[in-house]
Amino acid sequence: MFASQLSFIVRRLWQMLPTMAGVVVLVFVLFNWVGGDPSYLLAGKMADAQAIANIRAQLGLDQPWTVQLWIFVKQILTFDFGNAWSTGEPVSHILASRLGPSLTVLVPLTVLETFFGIALALAIAFVRGSLTDRLVMVACTVGMSISILVYIIVFQYGLAYKLGLFPVQGWGDNFLDNLLRYATLPILIGLAVSIAPTLRLFRSFVLDEVNQDYVRTARAKGLPERRIVWVHVLRNAAIPIITYVMSNLPALLIGAFLLERFFGIPGIGREVILAVERSDFPVIKAITVYVAAATMVFNLLADLMYAAVDPRVQLR
To answer: Which of 23, 41, 196, 263 is 20 to 30 A removed from 55 (C-alpha atoms)?
Structure first.
């Protein structure tokens, strides 16, 4: 079993290489050719030709494109993209220091969203088609129609500013203090925003399984409805749920920029917005490449989880 899993992982990693190479070439073309010459941006409006030439030499832009591409590949492999243009801080240090705050918010949010989404979807499966089911779906539709900005403003003003239950903004150096104090309200807001679409999607996954033949067979054998839903249906519905959760994880790092921006959380999403505003290409390139790599890794982990939850899935 372990040998087959190891063989599958090696094959998948080998298959990732062409995709990753395509991402690297695409990012290189977009930022080096389509994006224009960054030396003019760094030199400023009043720079002379000599200053621009010096900057081009420092960045390697005076080299052939094959050499420039190799420099970019070495930066990716060594995790060294040089310094950020706007602050002079090493890009590797920026990513390492911003990843922790993002994960402090996103990991608990993902766990709570998945747990409540599954629990509520299975609970609704017991009363599918009833008035309760319809009311929950209406509430989900209303919740999905409200902008995340409304949630942020209302929660921040009501719970943090007026009631003083949470800090309005801030971030510290202690992990537990950040998790229990500063990250709690952003997690609650993220959960309020995401639970409605997650519940609707998970409900559809569960109901698709409820209508299958094996469920009717289990009922015919006299198995309790609770066991049918929580054991048999959940196991089969786990495949699309895992796909949804794992495919969303890399995007969450970037997608939480509004929460990070409003609450002053120094995370990856907030850093992306600042880098775009400042035209800080090294930071943007690094985040783009590593998010693409994380997406492929999470897809691999999803395939391994398929086999773990369903023995019928064969790793090939």
So the answer is: 23
Which amino acid, 211? N
Helix, strand or coil for residue 90? strand
Q: Are 122 and 234 in contact (CB under 8 A)?
A: yes
Distance CA 260, CA 266 (A): 7
Read off the amino acid at residue 174: N
Contacts 24+ apart (CB under 8 A), 207-210: 207/125, 207/128, 208/237, 209/233, 209/236, 209/237, 210/125, 210/128
75-118 per-position pLDDT tens digit:
888 888 888 877 888 888 888 888 889 889 988 999 999 999 99
Angle at which helices 65-78 and 281-309 cross, to 10°: 50
Q: How far apart are CA 187 and CA 179, in angstroms?
A: 9
User: Across the strands, what pairs with 83?
Assistant: 90
Residue 41, CA distances (Å) to 57, 61, 92 in order: 15, 13, 22
Q: What is the pLDDT of residues 72-81, one digit of tens each?
A: 888 888 888 8
Torsion of CA 58, 267, 169, 104, to 10 degrees: -150
Match 């009363």 to its residue by tokens.
127
Structure tokens at 123: 């609970």
Average pLDDT over residues 301-307: 82
